[in-house]
Amino acid sequence: MFRTRSLAALFIFLLVASVFVGCGGANDSSSPSTPSPYAGHWKGTWVDSIWGQTGTLDITVAGGGNVTGSVVNNYIDDNAGAVSGVIGDNGGISCHYYYRWDSFRALGALSINASGHLVGNVTEYDIYNFVAQQDSVDLIKQ
Predict the structure, then answer these.
(1) Per-domain residue ranges for the chain?
(2) In this structure, how many other beta carbons lie within 10 angstroms of the beta carbon of residue 92?
(3) What ranges in the chain are assigned the alpha helix state H?
C-alpha cells in the first residue's frame, strides 16, 4: 500500500512539474521568429589602439544572437582562445575571450557597413575590470 501511494505521489509530482517546465519552443531564444541581423559566420581582423596588437576573430552568430568562435592574438605565445557571448539586434556585443592563460570580457558596438562588413569597436577588460585593449573589428561574412 505504501508503494502504491509513493507511485501515485510521484506521478502527481511529475504531472504538476511538467506543467511548470513546459515543452519549450515558444520562448526559445535560439530560434526566434525574426533572426538576428548579424546571424551567420564572420571572420576577419582586429587591431588594438592601445598596444598596437593585431589578430583574427572567427565567430558564428546564431539566429538568437548567441556568439561562439575563436580569437587569435598575433603578438603573444599560446595565442588562440575561445569566444562566447551575445550580440543584440542593436549591435551591442558582450563576449568573453577565454585563453588558456587568462580571460577577458569584451563589450562594444558592431554594425554592418555599406560593404557588408561587420565593423565596430570592442573594449576588452581584464579580470580586475581594467581596460586591457581597445579593438577595432572588421569581419567579413563567410
Answers:
(1) 40-141
(2) 14
(3) 2-21
